[in-house]
Specification:
The chain contains 15 helices and eleven strands. It is α/β, with parallel strands linked by helices and 363 residues long. α9 links the parallel β6 and β7.
Length: 363
Amino acid sequence: ALDTPARIYYKNESVSPSGSHKPNTAIPQAYYNKMEGVHKISTETGAGQWGSALAFACNIFDIDLEVFMVKISYNDKPYRKTMMNTWGAKVHASPSELTDAGRAILSEDPNSPGSLGIAISEAIEIAAKSEETKYSLGSVLNHVLLHQTIIGQEAVKQMEMAGEMPDIVIAPFGGGSNFAGLCFPFLRLNFEEGQNIRCIASEPSSVPKLTRGEFRYDFGDTIGMTPLIPMYTLGHHFVPAPIHAGGLRYHGAGAIVSQLLHDKLIEAKSHDNLEVFEAGLLFAKTEGIIPAPETNHAIASVIAEAKRCKEEGVSKTILFNLSGHGNFDMKAYEEYLSGKLHKFEISDEEIKASLDKLETPKI
């Protein structure tokens, strides 16, 4: 389809029970909570992949789950909510009237589309007010990234079986679990064996924390309930555009990934909303798998690198993470195919205005 000398491989994480890479951390988190005698967990979810995975895991270990799902995705992806309900989870649209955080957001903007930062604030508040409830996060934090490295550890062995080693490794980027999961084991080869594998984080141009954000301390949630994290951020008050890649609508990046980018050990690219669906459609027609909108960002980066190989007349091996299927994202594809999808640009002035609200320490 691309007429490129590049050789392209993908790690297919869409075949898990919930349809994405998220069970890699949901299962151990539910297990450890069960071993500690926890009976209820609260969490957030963007497009629903994390909420689905944790609902699946909590059902296995007989733990109650309460999920705050970003409102724009709650409305656009009703079958993700149904999947969570099927596994026994209680799901609310966020921001909601159920928490102080949600009510505060709605008092300022009754039509708020929500964000992962807002949903995190609501889920943390539920846990903080109940001795019976623990909070679980599906990305950003170090233990989540550690769990997800099973993706890359498997991929290293699989590439060895194929008699190849990637020159370029690419994954979508929201908070970091997807990218870290695939790329960290390959970065180890750079650090310990002197290899020169490029690792590229692919993010939306409407949520460009890695490509246009600021490296400083910030909160992981909108209200400011988490510890301060050194991260590339757009500011914890930033509310992303209502793109369909709900799992990437997050203002900040995990600490380890942020430091690696700051030290120029990894790269970051951004793609607009129309470009990524064009890439996803090409992949679906070529491979027969409809990718999640989040995954489409990685595919867009892959296509850009493959085209560069063609222009330069060089052969590179590219590996990317097919992090989830898009079978519950038909509304997104329908809008793209009917010409109703928006590009969503963000100006330097908007980013500066968001960052100017921060009172957190600079690095």
